[in-house]
Amino acid sequence: MSNKIAVSELSLEELEAVLEERRRAERTQRFHEGHSPSRFQPITVLSHADRPLVFPPPPKIKRGRWRNRLLFAVEMIAVIGLIAILIGGLINLGSMENEFAEFRGTSVLTPSNDAVSGSLVVHPDVNAEITELPGSSLPPEDDQFPIPLGLSVKPIKIELTPPLIVPQSPTRIVIPAIGVDWPVVEGDDWESLKVGVGHRIGTPNPGTRGNMVLSGHNDVYGEVFKSLEFLAMNQDIVIYAGERQYRYVTRVRRIVPPTDLSPLNPSRDPIVTLITCWPYRVDTFRLIVVGELVE
Predict the structure, then answer these.
(1) CA distance linking residue 89 with residue 76, whole number of Å
(2) Is the dihedral of CA 124, 129, 135, 140 positive or negative?
(3) 204: burial class by Cβ within 10 Å (0-12, 13-18, 19+)?
């Protein structure tokens, strides 16, 4: 007798049970097939000696960084040098001002025997052997003559003596419009202008016909003519000769290079020419102010 039963004879519950049993058998077969020894491959483990050596890439040299550092160092050296130059200039200017103050406080202008007798030495050639106008804020050069090798020169200290004033020479200048009130000394060289305003030797005295030349600094030794550039036209310039005063009125103002000696030229009219450096603290030109005698 056969155990096979037709599908049509099975009930629904029995048919589901047969299908579930068949699915279970298929899963079991697939599981055994998946764990077959032929699926696993052997793994080879290398020791440290068998591993290849791998070296890191060499570091890149950053050339730009070193160049920037070098440029920064050069800029810092330049700034330090500029600051040192400025400090040195201020120290030098301060020493010059102190020297001026000490000299002005201790100097006493006294007339000589020639002054008492009324004689005045006049140099006919006022512009002889000069190359630029007076009033420079820079001292004269000391190295005009080279020193031979092997020779040592000791510095010579020169005592500063006040220039002498003779009768009828200008002794004082007053410009009310710009607050100028300074003594006038004979001579317009570097040492003379340390005292105040310098009267160029050989030029006329106050009140006489001709071109009376007066010079003064604008940024050192008292800055006597610092405000001269602000003096307008038709302003008074009062020049004293002892107790007597002479009034001039400004007529001309101009800027010339230091090598232009025309402001020293003689004149047929009684005039006064004021000379100073310009611009302030630069001193590449000369400021010229000319006044005409009115009384």
Answers:
(1) 20
(2) negative
(3) buried
Assign domain 131-138+165-295 to a CATH class: mainly beta
Q: Are strands 180-186 and 172-175 parallel, antiparallel or unpaired?
A: antiparallel
Contact 198, 189 (CB under 8 A): yes
Q: What gap in Å lies between CA 43 and CA 41, rounded to an integer? A: 7
Which of 279, 196, 280 minimizes the C-alpha distance to 239? 196
Exposed / middle / buried, residue 25 (Cβ in 10 Å: 0-12, 13-18, 19+): exposed
10 Å Cβ neighbour count for 261?
Answer: 14
pLDDT digits (tens, 9 = 90+) for 159-187: 444 444 455 899 999 999 999 999 999 99
Q: In this predicted structure, what is the pLDDT of residue 167?
A: 55
At residue 88, what are phi and psi to the nearest 5 degrees? Answer: -60, -40
pLDDT for residue 121:
36
Q: Which of 41-45, 136-140, 193-197, 255-259 has the highest mean pLDDT?
A: 255-259
| Contact assessment for residue 170 and residue 199, using Cβ atoms and an 8 Å cutoff | yes
* Cβ atoms < 10 Å from Cβ of 189: 14
**Where in the chain are the domains?**
68-101, 131-138+165-295
Q: CA-CA distance, 289 to 231, in Å (whole number)?
A: 9
Q: What is the pLDDT of residues 207-246, one digit of tens each?
A: 999 999 999 999 888 889 999 999 999 999 999 999 999 9
Largest alpha-carbon pair distance within the chain? 181
The CA distance from 228 to 197, in Å, is: 13
Q: How far apart are the first and last CA of the chain?
A: 171
